[in-house]
Design brief:
The protein is of the alpha+beta class. The protein has five helices and four strands, in the order ααββββααα. It has a four-stranded mixed beta sheet with strand order 1-2-4-3, sandwiched between helices. Strand 1 and strand 2 form a beta hairpin. Helix 1 packs across helix 3. The longest helix is centred in the last third of the chain and has 16 residues. The termini are far apart. The mean pLDDT is about 95.
Length: about 140
């Protein structure tokens, strides 16, 4: 593992965001072998069953939670890289504080374009296309004439 990924892993353990991710994985996923080791110090949990958030995969600390079978999240996939960038964002935002920050940015994006991701800086910095998002334009009344 690269030193930068080890630092991210330690920071997310200390700021308790990975602990929250593991708690979610233990309570909101089903099936045997729910959590597996992924690349770069990430943990991947499949079978997430709560209705919120809506995304097919999301990250809390160093834990990536996937709605379906986690084996579809192959090492080196674009989605895995996208979620890994979110893990780094948790470290930069000092952990759980990222959740309300992300929510505020998602709400602002929804107001601006009707989409949770297109104008959310967390999603843009993680790579919209890698996360499976299309960039939507601003709402018509917000566009320059």
């Amino acid at each position: 593992m690269k030193p930068v990924h080890r630092v991210r892993q330690v920071v997310n353990a200390v700021n308790l965001s990975t602990c929250l991710g593991l708690l979610l994985a233990s309570t909101a996923t089903r099936g045997p072998g729910r959590v597996r080791r992924g690349p770069e110090g990430l943990l991947v949990a499949g079978g997430y069953r709560l209705p919120f958030p809506i995304a097919s995969a999301f990250t809390v600390g160093n834990v990536i939670l996937v709605r379906g079978d986690a084996s579809g999240l192959a090492d080196g996939s674009r989605l895995l890289r996208h979620e890994g960038r979110h893990s780094t964002q948790y470290a930069w935002c000092l952990g759980i504080a990222m959740i309300p920050l992300y929510g505020a940015c998602a709400g602002a994006s929804m107001l601006l374009c009707g989409d949770w991701a297109s104008y959310n800086p967390f999603e843009r910095l993680a790579g919209l296309a890698d996360g499976g998002y299309e960039r939507r334009p601003l709402r018509p009344f917000l566009r320059r004439p």
